[in-house]
Amino acid sequence: MATVLLGACKKDGLTTYNDKASKNSIYFPDAKSTNNQVFVSFGYAKSNVKDSIVKILVRPIGAAMDYDRPYNLSIADSSTMKAGTDYEMMSPRIIKAGRVADTLKIKLLRTTTLRSGPLFLYMDLKPNDNFTNDYLSYNTTTNGVTKTRYYTRMTIMADDIAGAPPFWLSGSSYYSFTVGYLGTFSTLKFQLLVTMYNLNVEELVQPNWFLNNGNYRRISGWADGLKAYLNRMAASGTPIYEADGVTPMAMGPNAK
């Protein structure tokens, strides 16, 4: 019996990974968990922040090789981001020797266009001499509707739009007080305020920030300081405008 078992083991052997069978498909491993999209907003970033680097993992199915393997990343013509103007590719599209993944690095540039609405970068991994895209798609079902999505596709969406924090939001019980000092909310004004006073945005957007620790008392000081700054800039011939480039930025009537 022992002899028979030994012979069977030698005949069947152990199942090992078949690299050729994998067809070396390349894909975005985070495609499904992110719903094929990465969103970047400069809206709550300080005004001196000029760019943001997005990192996206790219992975082939199969073993590492002892040579570099370039992969084919296609940018769709329908993308509204333009290379060199709205973004820069910071890394070569290569699975390096001995590696089983690559981190694609893309620098998003904070252009004034982002203040008007989001821009999109549509990316698609295409087959080449090194990789296939046989590991291609998956289905998602929402409310009984099934859609096909792709492991080989990823979209980057970016904007520079901020919503008003609760204490500056129309309809809140603190709105009239806040507007009396800071004036009408705008993304640029909020970003300038955050930059000038090095404020923590995560704290500012908390629903109870206005009353915590008497924070509302700080608003009048911010308004006075920001009004003085705007006046200095206007006097020097470099006034600060709102996003339309025409309307001068202004504080509320209670700012001194």
- What is the helix content? 10-25%
What is the rounded Rg?
A: 27 Å
**Biggest sheet layout:** 4 strands, antiparallel
Categorize the overall geometry: elongated
H and E order: HHEEEEEEEEEEEEHHHH
Keywords:
alpha+beta, 4-stranded antiparallel β-sheet, 4-stranded mixed β-sheet, disordered N terminus
Provide a descriptive summary of the structure in words.
- The protein contains six helices and twelve strands.
- By secondary structure, the protein is of the alpha+beta class.
- The strands form four sheets. Strands 1-3-8-6 form a four-stranded antiparallel β-sheet, with no helix packed on it.
- A hairpin with a 2-residue loop joins β10 and β11 (145-150).
- The chain is elongated, with a radius of gyration of 27 Å.
- The model is unreliable at 1-17 (pLDDT under 50).
